[in-house]
Amino acid sequence: MKVAIASDHAGYDLKEVIKKYVEEKGGYEIMDFGTYSSDSCDYADYAHPAANAVERGVCAFGIAMCGSGNGIQMTLNKHQGIRAALCWEPELAVLARQHNDANFLVMPARFITEEMAYRIVDAYLSTKFEGGRHARRVAKIPVDGAFEIELGDVMIQGSHGVLPEERVCGNQYRINVRIRIPSSSFDIESDHLSDTISYAEMYEVLTEIMSRPARMLESVATKFGSACRKRWPFILNGEIEIVKTVPPISGMVGSAGVKYEF
Predict the structure, then answer these.
(1) H or E segment at 215?
(2) What's the CA gap between 219 and 156, in Å, rounded?
(3) Which residue, 39, 85, 150, 225, has fewest beta-carbon neighbours within 10 Å?
(4) What is the pTM of this model?
(5) Which residues participate in catalysis according to the annotation?
(6) What domains can be seen in the chain, in order of their start residue?
(7) Are 65 and 21 in contact (CB under 8 A)?
(8) pLDDT number for residue 151
(9) For 100, which DSSP code?
């Protein structure tokens, strides 16, 4: 997993320490966007390239620092696909991940010890986004510049359900998918499909997940959301609705299903 890291001169020493600390954990590959010395410099020159790497999915997330943390955080958050959280204690890092899906951890290098920085990084790395109501709120953060990519009224046969016969005979499902990505991830000059999500690839992920029998549609929806975020890290958020067109319910019920935000 690639991790972007950046700092200005005030954060340089801490950046070098944290870079080594994260690398030694294993499973992380650091992409260092500078600065590369303690000589005076401007934080924006390093924050923007690091933010671009996370927005475009080159890196899964980022870590940044400057003297107070404010300047580099403000710069990172100018990018519509970035949610940079300034954290000076572990509890803030936990909440930033759980509730805000922060994809950049920012620390105030001049106001915390190395030991505190380690604890903050550990808290950030070990915490997952809770989704649910928080996903709805996070979706409202970008001001503009986002694309919505949709697959509508997809009809797929699946073998999901609590009843054994449902997992043997299967059922017909109607599925709607909506995924939002930052417009900054798409390079209008290159006009290249790799900068966005193709309908064909989205359909491929959907059919693969639907092919695995499950008792609960909630499980299917959650697995789809996780698969999408793993394949396209630059996703802002998404929603999937899975409707069972012929539910095994006695009575006049036209359909039954779940809707999941991720």
Answers:
(1) none
(2) 17
(3) 39
(4) 0.62
(5) 66, 99
(6) 2-129 (3.40.1400.10), 146-261 (3.30.1130.10)
(7) no
(8) 96
(9) H
